[in-house]
């Protein structure tokens, strides 16, 4: 039985590691690991006898690297030449590693990168190979760059089918393979691209999807936070239905599903346009317990003056029996709740702006 919690906090200037007991109230942090490097992605891989930490760090001098640690961050190893690299014939180079997630097979890890590509590892993140059919997709020349760049920021391996992977990028939309990566098809029916002219707002691809998630016990159900819109799919991305009614605004970046309840989902709404902070500047998490049919506001303990955004991977849940929920802001604060969002406390403050938060029971 897990009696500790590990929190990985990736920022624009390094990685911090926090540990706590099962109560998850008092925390001890070490860092910065990878001082002054951008850390956009990290992973606590609890498969196997020893947890492995992975961090996608990018140095302004040496470029991006996937680092790994098998001693909970006491030491780190790198793969020669950076682990995630494009083949020479692509005439492309990785700018950042935006996503690191485990596959359903032992040893498999996926990486999503900028520019938009997906890579696959079969040795727990020590080496990666390009998903070539997705890189060579005929739609790729028409994928645009969002405000933060063009990247595959979401990779969702199916929890039991190794042939199936769902991935999303800004601004290209959702793509999916059902044949182990040999082919990929867009899965965007019903998702609105509000920035396109009237009559053209439901294209086959080109939507600015911000994040996609799902519960492993109900893999055909997907939840999606869009650039304007919150959606649910009950047919594995074949069609999407809006579930934004009841939220104060429909813009935001993260969306997190409860690890034990497939119908419970959390979002952090933000103003759109040039005001990327919460409505009325009040930090609030919104929760649905009925798969998006209704929403409730959660903010006990959260600040009422929060003029920053919470990014797409800066919100997560741990895997305790009663899971903890965490989010980090671009003001360098991280907040946690041990009662599913009912009450919040500050976990750490005064870090650089937070890009990714990952938690695990260990």
Under CATH, the topology can be stated as Methylamine Dehydrogenase, Chain H
Task: Name the helicity range.
Answer: under 10%
Uncertain spans, ≥5 residues at pLDDT below 50?
A: none
What is the terminal separation in angstroms? 8 Å
Largest sheet: 4 strands, antiparallel
Q: Under the CATH scheme, which architecture would be assigned?
A: 7 Propeller
Number of helices: 1
Rg: 19 Å
Under CATH at level 1, the class stands as Mainly Beta
CATH superfamily: YVTN repeat-like/Quinoprotein amine dehydrogenase
Question: What is the element string, with H for helices and E for strands?
Answer: EEEEEEEEEEEHEEEEEEEEEEEEEEEEE
User: What does the overall shape look like?
Assistant: globular
Q: Within the largest sheet, what's the order of strands?
A: 3-2-1-28
User: How many structural domains does the protein architecture include?
Assistant: 1
> What is the average of the pLDDT values?
95
Organism: Nocardioides agri
Pfam families: BNR_6 (PF15899)
Protein name: Exo-alpha-sialidase
InterPro entries: BNR_rpt, WD40/YVTN_repeat-like_dom_sf, Xyloglucanase_GH74
Verbal overview:
The chain has one domain (5-361): Methylamine Dehydrogenase, Chain H, CATH 2.130.10. The model has no long low-confidence stretch (mean pLDDT 95). It starts with a strand and ends with a strand. The strands form seven sheets. Strands 3-2-1-28 form a four-stranded antiparallel sheet, with no helix packed on it. 1% of the residues lie in helices and 41% in strands. The protein contains one helix and 28 strands. The longest helix has 4 residues, at 132-135. The radius of gyration is 19 Å and the shape is globular. It is mostly beta strands and 362 residues long. This is Exo-alpha-sialidase. Pfam families: BNR_6.
């Amino acid at each position: 039985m897990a009696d500790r919690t590990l929190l990985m906090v990736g920022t624009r200037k390094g990685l911090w590691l926090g540990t706590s007991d099962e109560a998850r109230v008092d925390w001890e942090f070490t860092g910065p690991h990878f001082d002054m490097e951008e850390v956009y992605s990290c992973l606590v891989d609890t498969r196997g006898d020893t947890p492995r930490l992975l961090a996608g760090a990018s140095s302004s001098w040496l470029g991006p690297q996937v680092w790994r640690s098998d001693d909970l961050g006491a030491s780190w190893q790198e793969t020669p030449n950076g682990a995630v690299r494009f083949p020479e014939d692509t005439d492309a180079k990785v700018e950042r590693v935006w996503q690191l997630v485990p596959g359903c097979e032992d040893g498999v890890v996926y990486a999503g990168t900028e520019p938009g590509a997906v890579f696959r590892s079969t040795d727990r993140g020590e080496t990666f190979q390009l998903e070539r059919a997705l890189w060579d997709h005929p739609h790729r020349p028409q994928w645009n760059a969002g405000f933060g760049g063009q990247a595959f920021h979401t990779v969702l391996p199916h929890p039991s089918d190794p042939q199936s992977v769902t991935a999303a990028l800004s601004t290209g939309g959702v793509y999916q393979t059902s044949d182990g990566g040999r082919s990929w098809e867009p899965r965007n029916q019903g998702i609105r691209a509000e920035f396109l002219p009237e009559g053209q707002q439901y294209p086959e691809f080109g939507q600015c999807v911000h994040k996609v998630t799902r519960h492993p016990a109900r893999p055909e159900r997907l939840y999606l936070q869009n650039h304007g819109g919150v959606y649910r799919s009950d047919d594995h991305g074949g069609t999407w239905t809006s579930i934004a009614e009841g939220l104060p605004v429909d813009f935001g970046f993260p969306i997190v599903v409860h690890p034990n309840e497939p119908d419970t989902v959390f979002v952090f709404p933000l103003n759109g346009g040039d005001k990327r902070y919460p409505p009325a500047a009040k930090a609030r998490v919104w929760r649905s317990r009925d798969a998006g049919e209704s929403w409730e506001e959660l903010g006990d303990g959260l600040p009422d003056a929060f003029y920053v955004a919470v990014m797409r991977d800066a919100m997560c849940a741990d895997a305790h029996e009663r899971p903890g929920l965490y989010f980090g802001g671009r003001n360098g604060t991280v907040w946690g709740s041990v009662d599913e969002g009912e009450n919040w406390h500050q976990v750490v403050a005064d870090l650089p702006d937070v890009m990714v938060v990952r938690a695990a029971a260990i």
